[in-house]
Design brief:
Length: 337
Amino acid sequence: MSETHQSLVFSGMQPTGNLHLGNYLGAIRNWLKLQELHRCIYCVVDMHAITVEQDPKLLAQATREVAAAYIASGVDPARSIIFNQSQVSAHAELAWIFNCVARIGWLNRMTQFKEKSGKNREAMSVGLFTYPVLMAADILAYRATHVPVGEDQKQHVELARDIAQKFNNDFGVPNFFPVPEPIITGPATRVMSLRDGTAKMSKSDASDYSRINLTDDADSIVQKLRKAKTDTLPLPETEKDLEGRPEADNLISIFAAFGEQSKQSVIDQFRGAQFSTLKSALSDLIVAKLVPIADEMRRLLSDPAEIDRLLKKGADEARALAAPVLADVRRVVGFVG
Ligand code: TRP
């Protein structure tokens, strides 16, 4: 990492409804720790959302919901910048320039596009293909140096690194962009479905019992955990015994993440016990943490104008930070004016 760039954290989440435990443990909770130490920008990436079809009314609602979730979880709008991507045109502008820096071959290697498009590649939007280029623009419009993301986004951050390096190189401006570092939020926070320990907890899973939503009330949290899939063995003695027991592993991992302790210490606490014991202790932990967040989200969402005001304030701050970077980019590229 070059010392010429001040440390700055950038991350984002798509506004696609049904925020769940995985979003909280895998992303937002780490953002809170980072904002203690660094300048941070947390974006609601509504432009990424429209790479697949969205209902405009639901998109607006989901954008406010994600912003409310950030704030209710403790992202502090006085300290960190919170805004929605589409309000700051620098993202789209820089993405165009990066479309001309990135190579088709690089994008062809992106595993997320391959997974999302499957056999339907020809029917996908061009935006879905260049999604990671927009992500590079998000990061580099602020010359961000650190990018907290889940394992599934690591390849996209690597693409942003390649774009930064190629830009610096092609235009003969060493150090113009920092080469951003991913901060990978570890496997302990990879939260799996409560119905299938081998599938990621997902907002698009048809069964609501597969996930704990950030807005679930205490009763639903307890119910969902009670119904969570398990196996028939007692809880294990060692971490090694979790191999081949994905559901046990998931529940123990969630407990460890919430209790901020190691998996082994959770295992020590529950070894040989029945799943029901672990499940009820886990319900208590989750309810204690999430119910106040859900209450605060509801309070914030009852006044959408106030959320819009906060997002606008964040967008103004973001725009002011991106403006000098974009002015430099325009000069380097040779744009007049
Ligand atoms: N693609 C990311 C995701 O789905 C969201 C995202 C968009 C992002 N732009 C970003 C994350 C920039 C980090 C930095 O999780």
